[in-house]
Amino acid sequence: MTAATSSASQVTEGRSGPFSHFSRDFTASIVVFLVAMPLCMGIAIASGVPPEKGLVTGIIGGIVVGLLAGSPLQVSGPAAGLAVIVFEFVREHGLEALGPVLLLAGVVQLIAGWAKLGGLFRAISPAVVHGMLAGIGALIVIGQFHILFDEKPMSSGLQNMAMMPTRVLGLDFTDAAATELALALGLLTIAVMLGWEKLRPKSMSLVPGALLGVLAATLAAWSLGLGVARIEVPASLSAAFALPTTTAWFAPLGNPALIVAALAIAFIASAETLLSAAAVDRMHDGVRTNYDKELRAQGLGNFLCGVFGALPMTGVIVRSSANVQAGAKTRLSTILHGVWILGFVALLPWVLREVPMAALGGILVVTGWRLVSLKHVEHLFKAHGYLPAAIWAVTFVLVVTTDLLTGVLVGLGLSLIEVLPHLRDIRLRVSEHGDEGAHRVELSGAATFLGLTRLNAVLERQPADRAIHLDLDKVKAMDHTTAETLTEWINRHRTRGNNVRVTGPASLLRPLPV
User: What angle do CA 219, 221, 222 make, to 5 degrees?
Assistant: First the structure.
């Protein structure tokens, strides 16, 4: 987003005022709070840390990041996309090392935002991003499968898969032991979640199924006095916000391996946040995202999460979409949802202590399964051919069988294959012409992810009140990352009623709406 556009957006938001839509923002904040509470705790459990760490991240993501965010309607907090990498980190280096590493990751994001690198993350191949998320989803499912049995997950995805038959074959329903009771509560949570989403009336469409699932399992465990594992919450709020006490707290930053981990967290958190912000922009017609400002806000949020020893945060599409669908108009809804989490943890911690661990496991099994969306790879194959689908598959398999960073790096390396045949015309030139009757945007050369930052800058400053002609006649080739970006941009403008005409070679236009 250009400075002029950003400035105009801020003026628009300021003119309407943070309280001009108070009633809608207030209602939306309650909905987001109800969605966020169980997810904050569940993602903390999936990350191998106490549940209050996820709640602290949710509070910081709502109040601090919500106040400063470049995407006003995006909601930030602990995300399933980082649960796997945090779980492995804590297992290898301990919980005490997470704080300083996360602080460094926040500093990296702050620097990237100040250096205006936000647009670069939007050039990451969709095949890599969705392959990564699918791999994370699979790891969450097979890890949280063991939580359903009141058991701890193994140290790797392959070990978790190997132990799954043992868990099932070890069941004995002749006596109501803790394992069988926990499984019943987990399955009850899943059944209520899925059943509510299928059968809920329109008048109650904003009530989250995850909350009802947790309530059902908690009431069942409490009323029947079941002896299953429950979540542990500190007695006081101050215990959840643990500050560093000595300079030795910074010692992990002298370990090169931990510095690499900080860079990996910063990269993945930034990519997920900015891709989520782009998705949120497609859901509403309000203020557009300032990507560099969003990156700086996320950096400050993760810096504070590191100081307080909490979980890393990203912009989260599930909570953000709930915010938009609930009618939020300004950043006030995001800020208030953080206030509600803070108030709940401060005033009603005893309620949280009644929640069975298996209920949170059930929520995350459903959440993880939804991340493993085969629709993405099917779309990539049908629209762009076998190579993007292969990149998705390789990224997915490597994330599950090795580790997240390896999968992402190999996927990014494979995405370069699309560029290799077009090195002679690799430079993308973008020009604008004020033609009579329509504003013309002309592209020439190879339209690949290498030129996507410049292309996005031009696309986002196009007038909203004029017809636009996207001229691709001189484009030699187009990779799937650029094609996906153009498709989203064209669809967004046409949804608003703008006339967008696309011309170019037939082979190039095949994956684009024309």
Answer: 65
Residue type, 289: T
Q: What share of the chain is helix, strand, coil (3-state, %, to 5)?
A: 70, 5, 25
| Residue 322 and residue 32 in contact, taking contact as beta carbons nearer than 8 Å | yes
8 Cβ contact partners less than 8 Å away, ≥ 6 residues apart: none
pTM: 0.80
For residue 145, give both structure tokens: 């499968």
| Contact predicate 445/482, CB 8 Å | no
The tokens for 186 are 């987990």
pLDDT in tens, 288-331: 889 999 999 999 999 999 999 999 999 988 788 888 888 888 99
* Among 254, 183, 190, CA closest to 216: 190
- Residue 77: enclosing H or E segment and its boundaries? strand 75-77
Instruction: With beta carbons less than 8 A apart as the criterion, state whether 441 and 458 touch.
Output: yes
Return the closest-CA partner of residue 309 out of 42, 38, 44. Answer: 44
Query: How far is it, in rounded angstroms, from Cα 160 to Cα 156?
Result: 6
Q: What is d(CA 445, CA 454) in angstroms, rounded to the nearest whole number?
A: 13
Beta-bridge mates of residue 430: 443
Evaluate whether 311 touches 351 at the Cβ level (below 8 Å): no
Determine contact, residues 105/349, Cβ cutoff 8 Å.
no
Q: Which of 327, 363, 472 is nearest to 45 (CA)?
A: 363
Amino acid identity, position 337: H
Distance CA 320, CA 317 (A): 5
Q: What is the per-residue pLDDT across 15-27, written as a single tens digit (0 to 9) for each?
A: 445 556 788 899 8
- Dump pLDDT digits (tens) for 453-487: 889 889 988 887 788 999 999 999 999 999 999 99
Using only C-alpha atoms, the chain has a radius of gyration, in whole angstroms, of 23
8 Å CB contact between 172 and 133: no
Taking a C-beta distance cutoff of 8 angstroms, is the pair 133, 396 a contact? no
Q: Are strands 75-77 and 439-447 parallel, antiparallel or unpaired?
A: unpaired
Res 173: pLDDT: 62
Q: For residues 137 and 369, what is the distance between their CA atoms, to the nearest angstrom?
A: 6
Contacts of residue 66, Cβ cutoff 8 Å, sequence gap at least 6: 75, 76, 331, 334, 335, 337, 338
Contacting residues for 247 by C-beta, under 8 A, at least 6 apart: none
Angle at the Cα of 371 (from 342 to 263), degrees rounded to 5? Answer: 70
SS (H, E, C) 199-225: HCCHHHCCCCHHHHHHHHHHHHHHHHC
Is residue 65 within 8 A of residue 310, CB to CB? The reply is: no
3-state secondary structure of 341: helix
CB 122 within 8 A of CB 456: yes
Order of strands across the sheet with 468-478? 428-433, 439-447, 468-478, 500-503
Please check whether residue 409 is in contact with residue 268, taking contact to mean a CB–CB distance below 8 angstroms. Answer: no
Structure letter (DSSP) for residue 450: G
